[in-house]
Each structure stands twice: as structure tokens, then as C-alpha cells.
Design brief:
transmembrane; membrane; mainly alpha; transmembrane helix; rod-shaped; about 0% strand; Pilus assembly protein
Length: about 60
């Protein structure tokens, strides 16, 4: 088992695997932070739109 671990450490594919894991984790973290920021803004905007629509009066022009 230790021989397999030693071979894995020596191979360059191990370094590439670690690079891809780090890059993927960074992208996922960035996506989550963008979703949180956009979600808060969307909630605020929907509340503003709801308030504006509720305050509008319907007029009969006939």
C-alpha cells in the first residue's frame, strides 16, 4: 500500500488532479457567492415591484 502511495506522489498526474480539485472548488465557491448576492438583490427587487403594483389603482375609461 505504501508503494502505491509513493508511486502516486511521484507521478505528475497526482499534481494535475490536485490542481483540478482546487480549480473546481474555487469555481463552486465563486458560483455560490454570486448566487447569494443575486438572490438578495432579486428578493429586494421583487418586494419593490410587488409594492408598486399593489399601490396602483385600476381606472375604468369606458
Amino acid at each position: 500500500m505504501q508503494l502505491r502511495i509513493a508511486k502516486f506522489k511521484e507521478e505528475e498526474s497526482a499534481a494535475v488532479t490536485v490542481d483540478w480539485v482546487v480549480i473546481t472548488a474555487a469555481i463552486v465557491g465563486l458560483c455560490i457567492s454570486v448566487m447569494v448576492a443575486v438572490g438578495a438583490g432579486t428578493t429586494d427587487m421583487s418586494g419593490d415591484i410587488s409594492g408598486t403594483i399593489s399601490s396602483q389603482a385600476i381606472t375604468n375609461r369606458f
